[in-house]
Amino acid sequence: MAERPKDLIYARDEKPPAVSLITIGFQHVAVICPYLVMVALVAEAAKLPQEAARNAMGLAMIAVAFLTVLQSLRLGPIGSGYLCPPVVSAIYLPSAMLAASVFGFPVVCGMVIFAGGCEIAVGGLLNSLRKFFPAVVSGVVIIAVGIELGKIGLGVLFDPQVVHDPRVNHMFLTALFVLLTMIALAVWAKGLPKLLCVLIGILLGYGVAALLEVFPQDFSTQMVRSPIFALPDPRFLSYNFEPSLMLPFAIAGLASGLRVVGVLTTCQQMNDAAWRRPNIESISGGVIADGIGCAVGGVLAAPGMSASPSLVGIEKITGVTSRILAWPIAGWLVALSCLPKFASVIVNMPRPVMAAALFFNGALMFVAGIQLVVSRPITLRATLIIGLSLLSALSVLFFPEFFKSLPSWTRQFTGSEITVAVVVSTALNALFLLGTWRYGQLRLGADGTPLTAASFDSFFDQQASEWKIPAADVKRVREVVDQAIEQVAAKTQGPVRIQVGSDSFDIRVRLNYTGNLPNLPDARPRMDLVEEQSFVSGLTGYLSGLHADRIERSAKGEECEIKLLFRF
Question: Is-contact 66 307, C-beta < 8 A?
Answer without folding.
Answer: no
